[in-house]
């Protein structure tokens, strides 16, 4: 069971941002925060208190991801090119606990342009992650779902509760 996974050391987050994609495994969030102009914008509390299941964090004024998003949008331009995970890594300053890869099924997005679908890896899975451009709601709405998109269908607020996969 994922909730029984042993985590050690100081960490601010686990569960939702526990397994980094290969492109992010060398992302140095703490170094980025300590460098140049960014170190004066964010202050980190010594302890993180409670929150939603799976992603515990405190929304103190000095501890908001919104600040990183403002920096991202303002000139001189982008501070990262890797989607939405890097701002969270910056906010948590590297205090992110790793759990076993088997708990995070990432890469289900496939490719909407090529129409490719991916399968689940063998073994237990707790988190399903439709990464990249291949979002299940886009394929469900377009009438061309991948087989695994049926797992998302009950949560699709704009479509029928049960969708038959076309592949």
From TrEMBL:
Residues 1-32 form the signal peptide. One of its GO terms (cellular component) is Golgi apparatus. Pfam families: Glyco_transf_8. SUPFAM superfamilies: Nucleotide-diphospho-sugar transferases. Pathway: Glycan metabolism; pectin biosynthesis. Its EC number is 2.4.1.-. The keyword Membrane does not apply. Keywords: Glycosyltransferase, Signal, Transferase. GO terms for molecular function: glycosyltransferase activity. InterPro entries: Glyco_trans_8 (IPR002495), Glycosyltrans_8_dom-fam (IPR050748), Nucleotide-diphossugar_trans (IPR029044). It is an enzyme of class 2 (transferase). Belongs to the glycosyltransferase 8 family. This is Hexosyltransferase.
């Amino acid at each position: 069971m994922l909730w029984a996974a042993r985590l050690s050391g100081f960490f601010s987050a686990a569960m939702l941002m526990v397994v980094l994609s290969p492109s992010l495994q060398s992302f140095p969030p703490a170094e980025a925060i300590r460098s140049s102009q960014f170190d004066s914008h964010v202050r980190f509390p010594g302890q993180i208190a409670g929150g939603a299941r799976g992603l515990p964090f405190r929304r103190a004024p000095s501890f908001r991801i919104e600040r990183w998003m403002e920096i991202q949008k303002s000139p001189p331009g982008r501070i990262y090119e890797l989607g939405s995970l890097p701002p969270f890594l910056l906010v948590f300053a590297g205090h992110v606990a790793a759990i076993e890869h088997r708990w995070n099924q990432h890469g289900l997005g496939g490719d909407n342009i090529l129409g490719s679908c991916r399968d689940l890896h063998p073994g237990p899975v707790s988190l399903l992650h439709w990464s990249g451009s291949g979002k299940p709601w886009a394929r469900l709405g377009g009438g061309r779902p991948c087989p695994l998109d049926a797992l998302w269908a009950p949560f699709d607020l704009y479509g029928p509760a049960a969708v038959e996969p076309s592949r």
